[in-house]
Amino acid sequence: MTIDLLDSTSVVDTSQACVRKTIAAPATDVLGRIANLETRLARSAAEIDAAQAVRYRVFVEEMKAQVAPEAERRKRDVDGWDAICDHLLVLDTSIEGDPEEQIVGTYRLLRQEVAARAGGFYSASEFAIGNLLAHHPGKRFMELGRSCVLPEYRTKRTVELLWQGNWAYALKHGIDAMFGCGSFPGVVPEEHALALSFLHHNVLARDEWTVAARPELFRTMDLMPSEAINPKKALAALPPLIKGYMRLGAMVGEGAVVDHAFRTTDVLIVLPISNISGRYLNYYGADAGRFSSSVS
To answer: What's the pTM?
Structure first.
């Protein structure tokens, strides 16, 4: 998912002191590699800071998101969840310099047990996540967020490595389902009537996976009757990230939310691991080995 946001809401101005000083990481923690690109978790506060700089370039400089004055001064996209999340990185190892200078893409990963200790999931500010979790007391959830890639690296290869990292991480931690916000540009849902209506009529999460936007923020996605939707045109109108998750077997929650700070219209993506197509499991490897065979 240009690469689009997986989540977005207003940025909370927090001190860099809240970010962990060190992150335990062995030398063999690389999760995948394709040619000069590799994916792994951030190993230090300096790498998290560099990832926040990449996020600032994409969200603020490119997408014109509004951030707090201190974040503007520091040119960093920072909020309180950064201190508790793991930060997945894609690095271009052909770039000379330190790893901080090689970061070209990032994702933020938050496991349910960590969120429970720290006050909840980020997406709960827009969607009624609690209802979804209550339906699955025996399952382990993971939130994906703050997904971005620098413009010149928005290629199939980079997206594959991001997914490779997510998949390897999910397997390591026994995750049963992933979720996060997928975004459309702009704050007028009606401008995306075709794509939003297609999602509503075709991939709406139902039964035990039912989840909806918070009532006070709810904007309908049902903007066109199903018979008026041209599926081919609707798929073409979907942001690439959302389209990619649909191919994997993801569903969407009911209702969209307008995020004025990030100037986006958000939907909630829900991806149970059991829904992932066998075609993609075979491609990436049931043990996440697709792009890790060359990793030492």
So the answer is: 0.85
